[in-house]
Amino acid sequence: MDAARLAPVGVLGLRLRVPENYLSPAALLRAASVARALRSAFRFVEFLPGSTMVAVASRSPLPPPEVLIQRLRTRQLDTRLVTPAYITYLYTNDRRQELRHALSAARVPLNRDAQPVTYLYAAIGWLSKFVPALIGTDASTFGGVPAAWRAVPFALIALLFAFSRVRAAARSAALAAAAGFAGMSLESVVLLEYQAKSGALFEDLGWLVMAFMAGSALGAWGMATFRASHEPGAPRRMLTMTVLLAALSFLSLLAAWLVTSGTRLELAGATVLLLGTGTVVAAIFAVASSGLATTGEGGMGRLYAADLAGGCVGSIAASLLLIPLAGLDATAYVVAAVSLLALLAA
User: Residues 163, 295: contact at Cβ < 8 Å?
Assistant: First the structure.
């Protein structure tokens, strides 16, 4: 959050869905993360409880309720709800002080564009309706995992890729799953980074998804044309797969650099990045399927299932865990690491 974009006397206002009478643990953690982000950027912050909590922040001192009441009377505004008595109540009722204390006492990570931890808190709040044990789950506890334990998933992935070389069908399935995981995870990173830098995603979402799908069509067509003009031997397949996995890793590192450098991701850049990702992912699938000629009629179905399973894991892991807890840049690094580890199966 960059407060310098606001005029010195400007006021930022936003609304949060926080219950007025009962502040549930999930709602408290979500609101506290946003509150911490506001305090990190603005010197003066006020929280006004109600059916929907209103938060206002400014670089300059915020006017007290007496000033607001005087302005309302001076300008002779005809209002039904916002009256002098209502303004006095907002600033003097006990709930305001209780809310301010609760938000200040909560120890949560601050919500950032590059690490939207409130995504996870919002998901926990919704899922707790069906799994009550999730109520009050604090995302910051996941950040306390020792670095050595964080390497365990990568070690397991490396072992799975290495063991998949025992059978051609398993190797192809592992590569297809890796492509699906990387494609969906990297697409999530690019879309959220574009939203953070542009301010809105809905206007261009259809175009950006189309770019990814167009890349998928281009990658499939390109590999079909390449295989038609070259002998699809095992050494050539291995070399092609190595180049494609390296390209996927490069795209992931490029996305991570865009996040960490603060470079503005324009629509053209996001389009090219998603187009390239779709092209490489589809090409990896095509190369992986080229060695299934002798695996029986169900071979292609299993390969397609592996690709969908990898994409499903990537979508869930990236949106609910990696991006909120580690950030967009770290998620892109994870995709790069998985792409390089997939070389063990190539």
Answer: no
